[in-house]
Amino acid sequence: MPGMLTPSPSPPAPAPAPARQGSTPTPLRAALYLLTSVPLGAATLVALLLLAGAGSALAVLVIGVPLLLTLVLSGIPLASLERRRLRLIDPVPLADPHREPPAPGLASWLRTRLQERCTWRELAYALLFAVVLWPLEALAVGTVLLVCGGLIGTPVMMAVGGDGEARVLKLWLADSWPEAFAVLVAGVVLLPLLTRPLRYVARGRAVLTRALLSPPDSALDSRIAELDRSRMRLVDAFEAERRRIERDLHDGAQQRLVALSMTLGLARLEKPAEPLGGLLERAHEEASAALVEIRELIHGIHPHVLTDRGLVAAVEDLADRSPIPVDVRLTVPDRLLEAVETAVYFAVSEALTNVAKHSGATRVTVTGEAAHGRLAVAVEDDGRGGAVTAPGTDTGVGGGTGLQGVADRLSVLGGVLLLSSPPGGPTVFRLEVPCPPADSRT
Fold first, then answer.
1. Does 426 sit behind a cis peptide bond, omega within 30 degrees of 0 on the bond before it?
2. How far is the first Cα of the chain from the last one, in angstroms, to the nearest whole number?
3. Which of the residues 56, 96, 126, 270 has an alpha carbon 20 to 30 A from that of 7?
4. Using CA atoms, how far apart are residues 243 and 175, in angstroms rounded to an integer?
5. How far is CA 93 from CA 88, 154, 204, 206, 212, in A?
């Protein structure tokens, strides 16, 4: 029964409340969104004109070059503010499309931003906002305020004028208090009717903002690529830490145990009287056993043969130490990416360990080759099979975490782990992983 191991999903988080992306904002939020656009748009227009004028005039003196560069990048802070202001009427957050610079420093940041399409989209948005959008929003909000304010304020104007009359919206003359209060009531009635279109204007403005400032597909692709690179950096850092631990154990604790064992051996040669002689003999045996265990531990952390001679030699070393006869037929390039070699080595090691513990096999075959940019390795035994469903074993999907950890490790490299183990056998443990060329080895 073929099976496929993939990383275990994390427990599902509570589902968030559905965002009302398509809902119409309340009149108050719509009016606040449009009102804040007016001073922001006017300030943006003034800033763009000043930067463009001063930068062009001073460009011959080189001083204007930073001003023109600031003009090009002026859409970035405006877009960041617009993404926050959009939350007034749209509860769905708008992601920042910019990626992290590959290196610290202003030069790296500028180079990255100037190469991004979203930077130029944000500059276009700033120009559209400064020249077209905010005047239209000011016209929409100003019309509602002028009409409703003029009607509602008629009694106030009549009282302030002192002559018992007031001109309503410059259209007709109200010359009595009942007429003035009737106009006020008309203004109150018209207020919700005239603010309703503002809600749709604000909603349309939000849709336009989201369309212009949303991350394009290329930005999402670059984010995915950056996540892949960061994941590989974590893998490299993890392997470097493993090698450091192996080196410290090899050069530190192991050497001390060797010295202790030699000292105890020399003490035994002095033939001390009992019971001291028996105690020295036991201490010497314990030190020798501890030395064997620490050597096995060092080999399990990161074997020297893998670093010095490559994957084929390391797998052959695994085969020599296996209690079950193992035939190795690997055809791979001389050296691979370190992360690939390490992941494949420990995957084969886990497979051979499981075969020795649970399969009842009498022979194992390890085959593999690199072709079309991928390395495929298979471990096949002649055991009783049933590994996929066997409870309580490392080979079962539901029991143990050995193969699941191998699958997680391979998935980081873009690889996959397949397991076929029908009852009665054979069990085939197969892995595939991208195989970078030898010159990319770090």
1. yes
2. 39
3. 96
4. 95
5. 11, 43, 17, 12, 14
CB 236 within 8 A of CB 440: no
Residue found under tokens 């106009």: 183
Stated pTM of the model:
0.46
Confidence of residue 306 (pLDDT cuts 50, 70, 90): confident
How many Å apart are CA 314 and CA 113, to the nearest integer? 45
Q: What is the pLDDT of residues 328-364, one digit of tens each?
A: 998 887 778 877 888 888 888 888 888 888 888 889 9
Nearest to 320 by CA among 336, 303, 335, 337: 303
Please name which of 241, 411, 400, 441 lies closest in space to residue 343, comparing C-alpha atoms.
Answer: 411
DSSP state, 298? Answer: H
How far is residue 406 from each of residues 103, 154, 316, 317, 350, measured CA to CA in Å? 32, 79, 20, 20, 8
Cβ count near 105 (within 10 Å): 9
Residue 320 banded pLDDT, cuts 50, 70, 90? confident
Q: In this structure, are residues 436 and 338 in contact, taking their beta carbons and an 8 Å threshold?
A: no
Cα–Cα distance measured from residue 423 to residue 386, given in angstroms and rounded to the nearest whole number: 4
For 113-142, the pLDDT digits (tens) are 888 888 898 999 999 999 999 899 888 888
| Tokens (6 digits) for 173 | 């003359």
